[in-house]
Each structure stands twice: as C-alpha cells, then as structure tokens.
Write a structure and sequence with these properties.
Helix content is about 40%, strand content about 15%. By secondary structure, it is α/β, with parallel strands linked by helices.
Length: about 450
Amino acid sequence: MRQGIITKTCAVAAALAMGVSLAACGGGSADSDKGHVYFMNNKSEVVDQYKQLAEMYTEKTGVQVDVQTGASGTYDATMSSELAKSNAPTMFNISGFDQFAKYQKYCEPLQDTEVYKLLTDDGKAYSYTIDGDSFTLPYAAEWYGIIYNKKIINDYASKNYAVIKSADDIKDYKTLKAVAESINEHKDDLGVDGAFATPGLDASDTYRFAAHMGRIPLYYEYKDMNTTFSKTIKGTYLDNYKDLFDLELETSPTDPSLVSSKTYDDVTSEFALGQVAFYRTASGLTRRSRVTRWRMTILHAAVLHGIKGEEETGPAGVYDASWAVNKNASDKDKQATLDFIKWMVTDDEAKKILSQDMGFSVPFTTFDGDEFQPDNPLTKIARSYSADGKTEVRSFTVPDQQWQDDVAAALIEYAQGTGDWSKVKSAYVDGWSTEWNNNEESLGSIPQAQKFDQQG
C-alpha cells in the first residue's frame, strides 16, 4: 500500500448551508501516472460518504480522487463552469432527462464498459440511450406507492363495520376507496383524524403529485400506445388520477381549501404520529422522517387508480440519479474514472457505504442480498414484490420542472375550488407537448421511443 497518499474532498457542510458552490479541493501526493478522478456531485446529503470512498480508493490504488459538490440550486451553473475548464470533471451526476440533454455532448458511451454490464436489467432500462449508445449509470433506485399503518388497519379490520378482514384484501382501488371512506366515517372510534394523510400542495410536497402520482396514468397510456415516449398524450387515465386525489382530499384531516399550506413535514407527521392510516410516498421516507419503521408497510398493490390489471402491480420504481463519464477527459483519466466506479460497485466495503450509509438501493447485480441493501423496510418490501413476480410500474421521464409546477398550480386551484379539473388536464396534457417542444428547441434532444414491451 502506498504511504503518504492523501486525497482531500471538499469540506462542504457550512458552505452548503449558505448556498455556496464549492471549488474542487483535491490534492495530496497521489500518483499522476495512474490518472485522476474528478467527480462533480449533486447530492449534498452524502458528501461525507463520498469523501470516505475517495480516500479509501486513493489509499488502495494511488489514484487521486477529488469530489466537488454543487450547492442546492447551483449545480447546473457550477457544472457549466467546471466543464469549460481544462481540468474538467471526469464524472458527474445526471438527474432527469432535461439535465441529460444539457450535458449529453460531454457524455461517454458506456454500453461496452465492464461497469455498464454489471447493471441490472432495470438499471440498463433507465440508462439514457440514443441510437444504441447508453450514456448513464443509474445508481439509486427508489419506489413509491401507498403505504399504511399496520396497527390502524389491523384495528380497523377487527371492527364489525370493517369492509375488509385484513390489509391483504386491499388489491384494487374500489376496495381502497371503501376502506378509506369507512375509516373516515368511524375515525372517532378508531382514534384517528382521517384515512389519508393530507395531500399537501406546499412547494415542498408537490413532487408527490406531479413527479410521482402523475407518472402512473402516463405509464398506462404509454402501455396502450406501445411506446416508451411520446411528445403528445391524451390524458386517458387522468380521471383515475382524479378519483384518487379526490379520495385523499375527502378523507384527510385538512380542509381542501388549506392543502396548499401543508408542507412535506406537516403531512409526514400526520402519518408518523399515527393520525392517519394511509400515505402515498417514496421508499426514501424512512431516511427523511420520524416515521416509526415497525408501523408501516406497502400495500400489495401499491399504485391503485382503478385501472385494469393494477392488482398485479407492485410499487412504481424511479431511478433518477445516475453517474456519467466525461468523454472529453483523457483516455488515462477516463479509464481511472471507470475503474473507480467499478470499484464502488464491486468492493464489499464500498458497497456497504453506498447501500447502508448513503441509503441507496443500487441497481447493479453485485448488490444482491440484504447485506448490500439499505436498512429500509419499504425498500425491502418493494424488492420482494418484484421477486414475487409483481410488475414494477416504470416511471417514465417527465419534461421538466416547469411542467410539474404547472400541474401543481392547477391542482391547488382545483383543491381550493377556484379552478376546475379541466385546468389540471390542460396543464398535464397541453403542458406536456408544450414543454417537450420547448426542450427540443432549447436543448436539441428528446427521449428516443422504444416499444413498451422492450422497456426492461
């Protein structure tokens, strides 16, 4: 092992709190003949873990690894600046198609690399691909769907007024609706404030309704169209979306006119404190909230909208976070970067840092077994449904943040009674084509469509 090798990763916590973008601060005495890895990271919550990985790898191999983290809201500006430099990042994060389109010209094709071949089938399906070239390596899977408080549902199921005998009976939207309305009717007897957590429409919570819930009707419409992308959609299943949203409004503890003031923390607390039975969320909930883990699990059919075949589905999967390699880096630095990524997903100690310390469910075949999965009950359950043959609802890409914001604004008006559902449909359907056309004009790229049955 080489002695005296020091790889420094930026100490970013204080600067991030001030919203400051940070300059790379690598250095030390690593062996420059072995190449250099410079990683541009956009996840401030795992800075310390990436620092640990960088130091471990440099000590092990002599390859210098520098990490820079862009402050929240400044990643794109920092990326543009850094990529223009002679010592540009050799690898960087990609989150969402709009970001991929911005940096596509810098992305090295990866489909022939050893590390790409280690991706799971789902990981490969979510890699951004153009004309057969795959440019990204998804590294964090999450799932979302409807979760429930086991104690409340078990208590409810024991009552003589219950419409189910156990949570296992909730396999379609019709049953979910009957249960939610019954719980709401008997909430005083059950000691709860409502059936569903408030559908909060504060800016901190709207992603659950646009980016997450909004992708369910899209999945089924694409399935009907036998495609994985279209610039135009009809909103075929938006009435199903409306039914679930209405059910949440009607059975939550909050007056519909006030939901826009409810934050993510507010509505998560309702579930965490046992005030409601149901909550629709991502598997990352247990990393970010006070929810007691033993209280909750995912419904067997987790994305219920009253659509044919939904009883055979598990949760919806989303793989937004990916690594990319800078094609303009030197051959030596590109190989050093690919070797570093391969080490992260094959070394047992590194795998534990990614999966357990960072909390990522990493879609590489090397992460089989619970030892290399997050200590997160929702993740474990979501993975078990796939293993049992449940169909994972794929989260196809949405145009951009503007589309999400417009859908959320229309939902707020609808909930408050100042706008009707037609505005939601217009924001969803008309806004979809508008924003994809804008993206194509400004970014020069849109996703390539495949047949739906080839989605992976």
